[in-house]
Amino acid sequence: MGGYEVTPPLETKNHSERFVFIAEWYDPNASLLRRYKLLFYPGDGSVEMHDVKNHRTFLKRTKYDDLRLEDLFIGNKVNVFSRQLVLIDYGDPYTARQLGSKKEKTLALIKPDAVSKVGEIIEIINKAGFTITKLKMMTLSRKEAADFHADHQSRPFFNELIQFITSGPVIAMEILRDDAICEWKRLLGPANSGLARTDAPGSIRAVFGTDGIRNAAHGPDSFASAAREMELFFPSSGGCGPANTAKFTNCTCCIIKPHAVSEGLLGKILMAIRDACFEISAMQMFNMDRVNVEEFYEVYKGVVSEYNEMVTEMYSGSCVAMEIQQTNPTKTFREFCGPADPEIARHLRPGTLRAIFGKTKIQNAVHCTDLPEDGLLERCVVDCYIIDLASEEERSTVTCSRSSSQTVSF
């Protein structure tokens, strides 16, 4: 595998500050995990890569507009010239010192009474400078709810808490920024929504909550609480956590594309879907690799000239996949998404998702199922990535058939 050649050389213009990360890339041709040093220069948005094992330059310094400083944190997946890199560690003391203390994680939980306002709450989260790194719609069992509210077990309102938190779906998110725990608590406001309307009238609980139990959203108070609660919803062991909310009936698939998530459009798109009277019955953020994207888009190969660009966009960052419900959902939701080309959509269907949020035919905000007969193939991806039908070990062998002569394996 050779490195990239860059011509002409980049002018540095005194942009000397750089951040270094250790990154891994799975090479599907050699079936090897390759390790690199990824250097990012925020002054001019340039990148550089070095092969750790062979001690050589893999990518000379070159400008790369699709990577931002806020994308660089441990555990994130970033796409650099069609290679999906996983950032596993800081590459030097300066980077660890400058960025390590600034990136704090906490849990943001939207409770059953505010799930319909998820778009508005995500808008608040994005505008406050948070990055959403994980997201999943779930339902809690009584045991999971009791574990979550363990600190309140001796309180007289404990049973009411359990009954409320298990009364409908919740949306759990891992959110990231400097001083995340305190900043999220500030956005939430006082625990009692009535008090919040007096003391913090613009807070989430003041606007979307009702009382001390039905108070819209939750955030942990400390590092220890944040770690414990995130482990419940997003187990580090790779388990599924609480059950997903998929219904599997009268539904279609929608994926909000990486560019739209990265540009902070997630909340606005969710609000638009709700306002058009569609129900989001399941939802999860995930990253796809190239192999799975190619299989997901198999029906477009050789048919759509932009196939390769479509594949690259879909695995370039985090997506949000949803199960959408309504009458005749495949047809009605496809019409709501609009033509694939946003320019055409703006002329012919100006109120559609792609007309409003799309940029190009590739970066057109959302993917939706085009034909009912394509739904089974797309459902396999949903099964593997958002529905959690299979265990982690089983996912490598999940298969589905588009026809009697074709089997797709993930």
From TrEMBL:
Active site feature: 218 (pros-phosphohistidine intermediate)
GO molecular function, one term: nucleoside diphosphate kinase activity
PROSITE patterns tied to this protein: DM10, NDPK_LIKE
Chief place of localization: cytoplasm
Gene3D superfamilies reported in the protein's UniProt record: 2.30.29.170, Nucleoside diphosphate kinase-like domain
Signal sequence segment: none
UniProt keyword terms in alphabetical order: ATP-binding, Cell projection, Cilium, Cytoplasm, Cytoskeleton, Flagellum, Hydrolase, Kinase, Nucleotide-binding, Nucleus, Transferase
Residue stretches making up the DM10 domain: 15-103
GO biological process: CTP biosynthetic process; GTP biosynthetic process; UTP biosynthetic process
Location relative to the cell: Cytoplasm, Cytoskeleton, Flagellum axoneme; Cytoplasm, Cytoskeleton, Microtubule organizing center, Centrosome; Cytoplasm, Cytoskeleton, Spindle; Nucleus
Pfam families named in the record: NDK, PH_NDK7_N
GO CC term (a single one): spindle
Entry's family note: Belongs to the NDK family.
Function: Possesses an intrinsic kinase activity. Displays 3'-5' exonuclease activity with a preference for single-stranded DNA. Does not seem to have nucleoside diphosphate kinase activity. Functional component of the gamma-tubulin ring complex, implicated in the regulation of the microtubule-nucleating activity of the gamma-tubulin ring complex in centrosomes, in a kinase activity-dependent manner. Part of the dynein-decorated doublet microtubules (DMTs) in cilia axoneme, which is required for motile cilia beating.
Assembly mode: Component of sperm flagellar doublet microtubules. Component of the gamma-tubulin ring complex.
Protein name listed in UniProt: Nucleoside diphosphate kinase homolog 7
Organism the protein comes from: Heterocephalus glaber
